Amino acid sequence: MRIGVTGSSGFIGSNFIHYLLSNPEINEELFIVNIDKLTYAGAGKNILHMFKETHNKKFLTHYKFVRADICDFKTIDLIVQTFKLDCIVNFAAESHNSYAILNPSVFFKTNLMGTQTLLEVVRKNNLRFHHISTCEVYGDLALDSKEEFKEDSSYRPNTPYNASKAAADLAVRAYVRTFNVKATISNCGNNYGSYQFPEKLIPLFVTNLLENKKIPLYKQSQNKREWIHVKDHCSAVYKILKYGKIGETYNIGSGVEKSIEEITTIILKYLGKSEDMKEYVDDRPGHDRRYLLDSTKIFKELGWKPVIDFENGIKETIEWYKKNKKWWLPLKQKQMIQENKWGEKNKSEE
Ligand code: NAD
Asked: Which residue out of 9, 14, 33, 39 has the highest number of ligand 1 atoms within 8 Å of its CB and is therefore the one to mutate?
């Protein structure tokens, strides 16, 4: 299979390519083209770093990188034809909820119009398409709710990031129904693991503490997320790409729920730092309370399940950041947001 993977210079996409080219259980011949615009979030040279780290030379023979914007129809169409791609997996997105509050336009441009442009390309070239989405499209749950989001739950996004992702999902559905595009969608919980840009909660807190800096906790620190290891997300996406039913949506969750406060305690304890390193800050506007997915469908229909235990996964992740300061230190200069400055410096640019 010849796969175009958009946004694979970022966190999950780069892990996905590494997963495809290093997993001995995948026994089909794969050729992968990473299509990425290289925004600030794609500046980590992840692919090169991770293949070197694992002494895997497959990226020299089974992989190509092309710098391109998913909003650019002509270039994406040319890439598809040049590399004779069979399918596209779309990870490309503006992905930072906090940054979306400062600059919502770029989120709708890439996340919605970029996805719609890709849909036009796959429609023209009759390709298989898989779209990566998020649990956040369903809105949020009360902290004590017994509900879990199912694939047919209503879409009630609360933030510009969530709304742009929700709009993209609807575009994919419309192209399946109207143009018979061979597409699937997956909605995943919060990912953690190595190579995540140090603006997101776990890498931000770990790297701040490694630099002896305070960690900014939103005051609503009892808000909860469902945490899944990035490698489990990657195995689920491959399963859907191979065996998912066209037109279907699959939730990808682990069932592991932890509050921001609990995650903070784990990190502080592991790094031997004191509670004094916490700095409670104003929540960003629209901060969701809780997300939890019902992932029964992918468990039952595709036989997928997560295999990475949270306690081990988080320790391994913290260790990775300890060992890879050279990777994350330059990226910290590229952060778009100061989480302790809501209401002050982080004013809307619009
Ligand atoms: P990321 O920000 O680390 O990476 C995004 C990549 O997309 C970057 O390499 C960036 O350069 C690229 N990109 C941005 N705009 C582009 C454009 N116009 N054209 C081409 N490339 C562009 O994000 P991530 O955390 O790896 O997330 C990947 C996908 O997974 C996103 O669609 C996100 O919504 C979804 N997702 C993420 C999580 C999570 O916890 N990180 C959870 C659920 C779903």
From this structure: 39
Q: Which residue has the tokens 């997963």?
A: 19
pTM, two decimal places: 0.96
Q: In percent, how much of the chain has pLDDT > 90?
A: 93
Distance 177 CA to ligand 1 centre (A): 26
For residue range 100-138, list pLDDT tens digits in order.
999 999 999 999 999 999 999 999 999 999 999 999 999
Contact call for residues 181 and 123 (beta carbons, < 8 A): yes
Q: Across the chain, how many H-helices and E-strands are there? A: 14, 12
- Looking at residue 343, its pLDDT comes to 58
Q: Contacts by 305-311 with C-beta closer than 8 Å and gap 24+?
A: 306/228, 306/229, 306/232, 306/236, 306/254, 307/232, 307/235, 308/229, 308/231, 308/232, 310/227, 310/229, 310/254, 310/256, 310/258
Q: Is the CB of 37 under 6 A from ligand 1?
A: yes
